[in-house]
Structures are given as C-alpha cells and as structure tokens.
Amino acid sequence: MELRYAFRLEPGPAAHAALARTFGCARVVWNDALAVRRAAHERGLPFPKTGELSKLLITQARRTDERAWLTEVSMVPLQQSLRDQDKAWTAFFNSLTGSRKGSKVGEPGFKSRKDHRQSVRFTNNAGWKITAAGRLRLPKIGEIPVRWSRSLPSIPSSVTVIRDAAGRYFASFKVTTDPDTDRTSAPDAEGDLGVDLGLTHFAVLSDGSRVASPRFLRRAEKKLKKRQRELDRKQKGSKNREKARAKMARAHAAVADARKDFHHQLSTKLIRENQSISVETLGVKALARGRLAKSVHDAGWGQFLAMLDYKAKRYGRELTRVARNFPSSQLCSSCGHLDGPKPLAVRLWICSLCGTTQDRDWNAAKNTRDEGRRIRAAQPQEPPTPGPGALTVA
Asked: Which end of the chain, N or C, is less surrounded by CB atoms within 10 Å?
C-alpha cells in the first residue's frame, strides 16, 4: 500500500533561500508550459507533449539569458512540475468526458509567486538522500534537519518539500508498506461496530459509548477574530500586514492540526479494536451549504472517514458504508418498525409498536451496524487463495 509520511523540516537561512529559488523555478516552468499549451489550443495545433516541453522550457531555456537562472536548481523538480501539469490536464479532460468520478475539475491555471503554499517533488533519480545524521540532503539545496517522529516503513520513492501558508516546511515521503506486515502489526479483533456521526457528539457508537465533539474551531474563534481584526487594520502591501497574515495562518494551522490529530487517534482506536465498522455515507458538501455549515466544517467528517477507509484497507479490517437514504434514525432497533421521520429536536422517542424508548443517536448507530452486517452478508465471498504447493483445478 502506498502511503505518505510527513515530517517537519527546519531549514537554515541558506536552505531557506535555495528552497525559495526552487519553488520559483518550478512555478515558472509550470506557467511557461501552460502558456504554450493554451497558445497551441487557440491556434488549433496538437496538444504539446511533456517531452517536447521539457526540451523547450528546461533544456534549451537554461542556455538562454532570460532563463539562465534555471541552472541554479535541480532539473528534477522542474520536470516533475511538467508531469504534475499533465495529471491536472488529464483530470480536467476526464472530468469533461465523465470518465472521472467525483466532482468536476477545472482547467489548470497559472501559479502566482504570492501563493502562500508552495511545493516541489524530488524523485530518486534526483540524488537526494537521508544522511547518517538523519538530515535530508537535497540537490543544490543542501542538508536540512528533520524532526523525525517515527521511522519510515520502507525506502521512499520520492520526497515532496512543502511550504504551507503558516511558513512551515514539511517533507512528505512516498513509501510502500508490506500488506502482510501491516496486518500482523494490528492486534486481532472481533468487534463489530456501528458509528453514527453528529454535531452534539462527534460520534455515537453502537456499544453505547459516545465521543464528545472537540469543536476546535469554535474554541479558537475568539483568537481567530482577534487575528483577523489585526490583519484588517494593516496597510495592504506592507511588511506589518505580511506579519499579521502569518500570525493568522499559524492560528488556523493550529486548529487544523488539532483536528487532524483527534481524527487520527480516534480512527486508529476504532480500527484496532474492531474487525468490522459500519458508517453512514454522508453528503458532507450538501450539509456544509446549510445553516450548520460552520459546525459541519469544524467536525471534519470527510477527513475522518477518509482516515477510517485507508486504515481499514491497510490493517485488513472491513469498513462498510451504508447508503445515506437508509432511515437509521426512523427504525426501531428493537423490533425493526419504521416509525417515521422526526425533527432534530427529538432526541428520545417511544416506538409506537413495541413501546421501547429509543435514544435517537444510539438507535441510529445500532441500525447502521445491523445494515452493515446485512450488506456484508449479501456480498459474494471470495474463494480462498491456494497455498504453496496446492493444486488449482480448472
């Protein structure tokens, strides 16, 4: 399984300047390629290929006076910039034809030097390495200290250096994990859990336990408003405004980091303790357009479900998504009677058939668990894989 492991970088003044040059050169190559491709489209010419653009915009451009400064950085991140644009165009064309699943993707646009988030990627042919002292050595940049929080499971195939809006630097390593090792590292579990996500409680589980909603954005709202007022008072284009913007970005990054850490800890706990997990398929985008938009964004359900998904695949667990039109809060989990829709203000209700008092969220979690069991039972079972030396009968 391919994963990314990210670690904080601490570049010094020289590395900081070298990274800024690399970001700038990669951005210029991207913009030059985009301009050439748009001009070819307007003239009715064939779509320029990456090889042609690499020769024109990198190899030949480095020999001219206008682009001679491209020689100050490694060629690999410049070539990777062209490959990234290829992927962006492919996603755009597939989105137009309908062959790409998900929401529509727009046409690639020009990048600005004022963009606060920058990134470049180095593949193995760039000659980067992790030194014996644990530093990241990048070509034409030098050695950069890394804050190692864990060990890499395998040799990385590439590293992406990222500068976020808060001015922090990260190294994102692309690694491949061994499925057998991943599954043996997770303890055996037999739990079968249903999860009902909400706003009052972040999650209510079918075993009756509840996970409180941290509400990181709401708790930091006072500080964020103060930072925003300070930013609004500064003159546009001034150094003080840039300082205020960086403070604002760091405050938002602290909220996002705390939310991500909470999601990681909870998803890991659920995956380690249960073999099967059933969750409702939520229409997060639609919910985020309503009157509860800020609370929905603060909860971050989409990020949490994405973590559950990849961790279940990695550790050999079963994650079942129940259809969003399944009436989990309308069914009585005791007798199965469909009692009809109820306003959100109704948190407890009595089944009109069996008379059982049901807690709305806990009842929904149990119904989600039962529906997940039904979906898994209806799925065709894969035949067992023959062991070593076994005969396969045609």
From this structure: C
